[in-house]
Write a structure and sequence with these properties.
CATH topology of the largest domain: Rossmann fold
CATH architecture of the largest domain: 3-Layer(aba) Sandwich
CATH superfamily of the largest domain: HUPs
Largest sheet: 5 strands, parallel
Number of strands: 13
Bound molecules: arginine
Radius of gyration: 28 Å
Strand order of the largest sheet: 6-5-4-10-11
CATH class of the largest domain: Alpha Beta
Number of domains: 3
Distance between the termini: 35 Å
Helix content: 40-55%
Length: about 575
């Protein structure tokens, strides 16, 4: 709809001698607060300067140049500074429902965009915890990947794990020295606990760091067989434990990059930058002075020539573009690294790296918990496994209240699905740059703005169809449309615009909010319009089927799978 209105307006404005781009028009189209003002409305205030006229005059002038009310619309009127568009409800309803039912899981998708996009997300470090912050990043990344695909792009999901460096040396040191009797385990919380123990011991006795440094150096040089083999084994267990998490979170990766692979290349990069006089030597270290740009000093190599995170990231960008021939490179990384990312992008600019404009950073803020409510074996960070356990235990209780005789197996699988959906939803409904205070009672509130509520609504709509147990006829008569029916249909028709907005702004939260509003409107509709055995049964069954499809598509883009029963 918005697209039709945009092109209509564009032409009419042009006939008045003013040229505007589609985006400049589309962003002003709004949905009026009450139906008397139409279904869409276009305020003309922003055109005052260009038209040099009163806004109400502008509205009239534009309206006059629209010679034909296009199909799907009933009327176009002006009201003061606004041009209001009234859609033809009966036509629109039929058209939208039929489109949804025929396009099914493709409804709302488009294929104009044909980029090859790499989306890098999750990026936990081996030998350390996978914590709630990683869940947020993984959730945003997976959702963006799906949105990009839905809009026609080819997406490469990439992970970039820190499998080498000081944190690994600390782990190896601590395990060898204090935990050797314990068998190595593929268990992220056990692995993380060794790391936490290392930190504790090192903070108590600074001298011990010398031993760690030695191990770090030996690991970097690959000079000790025993250390190397311990590194390989523990690294693999750590990586495998992450894969278990990814399966639970319903995500996967097409490419894995590792920091250990970027060391040599990072070193070469640093040398090249020195030669090009972009970097320089300062107290033995290789640095780039970015103070001019208010970005401080970026250190590439330590004075012992060990390669830092910065230099590795420079090597990584090059690898991404050269090896994978991508034309967009998206990073989903916590906002704690926004300085690092700004330094990276600035350096790429100084290097005249041709693809710098194609690199995009999607920062996201932290996840906190109401204090004292969740146990953690590792101090500050809440581990994935502890978190999931706490949430699933809670959701089991909630499910049991509703289904006291549910089987144990069913309870396990349903509680996990509901928990994951609820966690993901609460991570996505917020703007990425807002801190989240995660409250499990809210996340799993079947009646509130939650993933559980959305899944519940989907299942409820399914049970209506099941009860009716009728085949949908292709033709139906909408009869006289009721207010709640119109509202629901209008909301369904907005899905495409929401997808395109989420895509353009790289912000899944608009889709999360949309899913919730859709459920609310559906529940209102269902409350006031009986479906089964009503006069309009065929039409309403089609409407419920359409709602289920759009809701499913919408939450799919959030990385959430629906369930048939709650
Ligand atoms: N592994 C890193 C960390 O835990 C995040 C990696 C982000 N990606 C990047 N290209 N720098 O801090």
């Amino acid at each position: 709809m918005k697209q039709i209105i945009t092109s209509l307006l564009k032409e009419a404005i042009k006939k008045n001698g003013v040229s505007l781009r589609n985006e400049e028009i589309e962003k002003f189209i709004e949905i009026p607060p009450s139906p008397e003002l139409g279904d869409y409305s276009f305020p003309c205030f922003f055109l005052i300067e260009k038209f040099k006229q009163e806004p109400s005059r502008i509205a009239l002038d534009i309206r006059r140049k629209i010679t034909k009310v296009p199909e799907g619309f009933q009327d176009i009127q002006t009201s003061g500074a606004y041009i209001n568009f009234f859609v033809n409800r009966k036509d629109l309803s039929k058209q939208i429902i039929q489109e949804i039912l025929s396009k099914k899981e493709k409804y709302g998708s488009f294929s104009q965009e044909k980029n090859k996009v790499m989306i890098e997300f999750s990026q936990p470090n081996t030998h350390k915890a996978f914590h709630v912050g990683h869940i947020r990043g993984t959730t945003i990344g997976e959702s963006l990947a799906r949105i990009f695909e839905f809009c026609g792009n080819e997406v490469i999901r990439a992970n970039y794990q820190g499998d080498s460096g000081m944190h690994v040396a600390k782990w190896i040191w601590c395990y060898k020295k204090y935990h050797k009797k314990q068998k190595l385990k593929e268990d992220e919380s056990w692995i993380a606990s060794i790391y936490v123990d290392a930190i504790k011991r090192l903070s108590k006795n600074e001298k011990l760091q010398e031993q760690v440094d030695l191990i770090n150096k030996m690991l970097a040089e690959r000079s000790d067989k025993e250390l190397d083999s311990l590194w390989k084994k523990s690294r693999k267990l750590s990586l495998d434990s992450f894969e278990k998490i990814y399966r639970e979170l319903n995500t996967h990766f097409d490419v894995y990059f590792f920091e250990s692979e970027m060391e040599k290349r990072g070193l070469d990069m640093a040398e090249k930058l020195l030669k090009d006089e972009i970097a320089k030597i300062s107290e033995g270290a290789v640095i780039i002075d970015l103070k001019k740009y208010n970005l401080g000093v970026w250190v590439l190599l330590r004075k012992d020539q060990t390669v830092l995170y910065s230099a590795k990231d420079l090597a990584l960008v090059k690898e991404k573009f050269e090896k994978f021939k991508i034309n967009r490179n998206v990073y989903v990384i916590g906002s704690a690294q926004s300085m690092h990312m700004a330094q990276l992008f600035k350096t790429l600019e100084l290097m005249n790296f041709p693809k710098v404009k194609e690199c995009k950073y999607v920062p996201f803020s932290e996840v906190r918990l109401p204090t004292g409510k969740m146990s953690s074996r590792t101090g500050e960070n809440i581990l994935y496994s502890d978190f999931i356990k706490e949430i699933t235990d809670y959701s089991k209780k909630e499910i049991k209240k509703r289904f006291p005789s549910i089987s144990k197996k069913e309870l396990e699988s349903r509680s996990l699905k509901i928990s994951i959906a609820s966690i993901k939803y609460s991570m996505l409904k917020q703007n990425p740059n807002k801190v989240i205070i995660f409250k499990k009672e809210d996340a799993l509130n079947f009646e509130g703005d939650s993933g559980a509520y959305i899944l519940y609504t989907y299942a409820r709509a399914g049970s209506i169809l099941e009860k009716a147990n009728k085949k949908l006829k292709e033709k139906f008569d909408t009869g006289k449309l009721e207010e709640k029916e119109i509202e629901l249909i209008k909301k369904l028709s907005q899905f495409k615009d929401v997808v395109s907005n989420a895509y353009k702004t790289m912000n899944p939260n608009v889709l999360a909010n949309y899913s919730y509003q859709l459920c609310q409107i559906f529940n209102e509709f269902y409350h006031s319009c009986p479906v089964i055995d009503s006069e309009k049964e065929q039409f309403r069954l089609s409407l419920v089927t359409a709602l289920r499809q759009v809701l499913k598509n919408s939450v799919y883009l959030l990385g959430i799978s629906t369930v048939e029963e709650m």
